[in-house]
Amino acid sequence: MHVIETAGLTKRYPRVTALDALDLAVGDGITGLVGANGAGKSTLIKVLLGLVPATHGTARVLGHDVATDGAAVRSLVGYMPEHDCLPPDVSASDLVVHMGQMSGLPYAAARERAADVLRHVGLAEERYRPIGGYSTGMKQRAKLAQALVHDPRLVLLDEPTNGLDPAARDDMLALVRRIGTDFGIAVLVSSHLLGELERVSDHVVVLDGGRLLRSSATTDFLHATGSLLVEVQGPAGSDRRLGQALVDAGLPARPAEGHLVEVPVAGDDAARDAVRDRIRDTVVDLGLGLVRLQERHHRIEDVFRDGGAGRVDQSA
Ligand SMILES: Nc1ncnc2c1ncn2[C@@H]1O[C@H](COP(=O)(O)OP(=O)(O)OP(=O)(O)O)[C@@H](O)[C@H]1O
Ligand SMILES: [Mg+2]
Questions:
Q1: How far is the CA of 60 from the centre of ligand 1 (A)?
Q2: C-alpha angle with apex 198: 164 to 309, nearest 5 degrees?
Q3: Ligand 2: distance of its center to the CA of 40 in Å?
Q4: From the CA of 191, which ligand is nearest?
């Protein structure tokens, strides 16, 4: 069963179509939801929670129809909202205990779970202080803790790295990864920073203007766009000779920085191996020494910028 399934899901506001006939299937594990500002990420998450009604189409979360069964969805799903929504005069401990009780936990159990999740997100020491005095990083952690307190099957995290510096961003991404791997909770995590999701996601969904641009495994994403980098040893100009010879052999070789030759490759492992063999043979034929032949993994960001994400690959 898919964790999230949508069919023709559409959300229209008076001036804009926030979601446009979205057909989506999300499985277990960690799924990155990528898109620029206004792409429809937050709208999708709110529709999935049953907080915002769709204009057309259907969405099911953990088997429940979000239009008719929103309460059941929200009892099984944790939600970390995008914007700062925490009461400043309450401690993280009180907030998370309260959210646990709202989800149906008895007081004692809510206290115990709150202490656990706050420790897990790294707010053990500060949890009795009012949230108003927290840094942005601490607030994001408190928001994450309240999403986890009722032991959900799925969490929807809306831009958890928003406003964080690089170190805090890495910590947050590591936490997100652990929610998926250590606790087996399915995760849908959104970001407009395409590069950061490739590190934590098993699967990536790209939205653009409310439409699905692409949905595929992160490894396919990287593989489909990787290049091979070649460095050779020989007289001056050897890299140019190699580049020309590769082009003559039908490979799309181009110069790269530092006298390297870059050969973009698409396709599966067998196709890549064949290209590697041809590069090796060409180097030998030219009487050059092969110093290195390695993969250059493009980041999802590059894919997006190059327009590669324009292909819709529904291998969900
Ligand atoms: N309540 C609303 N009323 C009218 N338009 C809305 C409303 N909520 C969202 N929109 C519009 O729908 C589109 C999608 O917005 P959404 O917030 O889902 O994007 P997003 O991908 O989350 O963007 P961001 O990265 O800025 O958070 C935008 O054009 C936005 O202006
Ligand atoms: Mg948003």
A1: 21
A2: 115
A3: 7
A4: 1
Tokens linked to 134? 């927290």
Could you say which ligand is closest to the alpha carbon of residue 53?
Answer: 1
- What is the percentage of the chain residues whose pLDDT exceeds 70? 92
Q: Which ligand is nearest to the CA of 41?
A: 1
Helix (H) or strand (E) holding 19: strand 17-26
Q: What would the pLDDT profile of 109-127 be if each residue is shown by its tens digit? A: 999 999 999 999 999 889 9
CB-based pocket (< 6 A), ligand 1: 13, 16, 18, 35, 37-43, 82, 192
Which residue's CA is the nearest one to ligand 1's atom 30? 38
- Which three-class secondary structure state does DSSP give residue 205? strand
**Residue whose CA lies nearest to ligand 1 atom number 1:** 13
Burial 284-316 (b: 16+ CB within 10 A, else e): eeeebeeeebeebebbbeebbeeebbeeeeeeb
Please tell me the residue having the least CA distance from ligand 1 atom 2.
13
CA of 150 relative to ligand 1 center, distance in Å = 28
% the chain with pLDDT above 90: 72
**Angle formed at CA 181 by CA 176 and CA 186, multiple of 5 degrees:** 70
Mean pLDDT computed over 57-70: 96
Residue pLDDT, tens place only, 256-299: 888 999 998 876 778 888 899 999 999 999 999 999 998 776 55
Which pLDDT score, from 0 to 100, does residue 299 have?
56
Query: Residue 53: what are its φ and ψ, rounded to 5°?
Result: -75, 140
| Beta strands, E only, 39-137 | 56-61, 64-65, 77-80
φ and ψ at 163, to 5 degrees? 80, 5
Q: How far apart are CA 137 and CA 167, in angstroms?
A: 10
Residue with CA at minimum distance from ligand 1 atom 11? 18
Domains (range + CATH), the chain: 4-221 (3.40.50.300), 226-296 (3.30.70.270)
Chain length of the chain: 316
- pTM here? 0.78
